[in-house]
Amino acid sequence: MADDWYEWIGDVLSTPRFEPYLKAAGGDVQLAVRLYWWNVEVSAAFYPSLHLLEVCLRNAMHRQLVAEFEKANWWTVAPLNQSGRRMVSETVEKLRRRLARPLTPDDVVAELSFGSGSHC
After folding, report:
1. What is the pTM of this model?
2. Structure confidence by residue, pLDDT tens digits, 83-102
């Protein structure tokens, strides 16, 4: 039975993804599966708060950047590095394809990702 569970989990989740749970469970596959699902449930419980935090932080940053650069589309004058400029450009292009109207700065800000690394 345990081998069947392990094969299924390895196929669906991948062995490297499941290994930490299996290790934490001392090799008990059924306990490892329960730990994995507990992690999914905890992550789901945090999602609304993290989502709200991201929206609030993004909007606060936008307000500060608008004030600093005196432009609603501050990214056109901010000293972004190449990665930051590329991120904005890709976001604008994606929105232009998706929206059937002129873009607003709020559209762009809402779509921008926090990404990784520094963009200024």
Report:
1. 0.68
2. 999 999 999 999 999 999 99
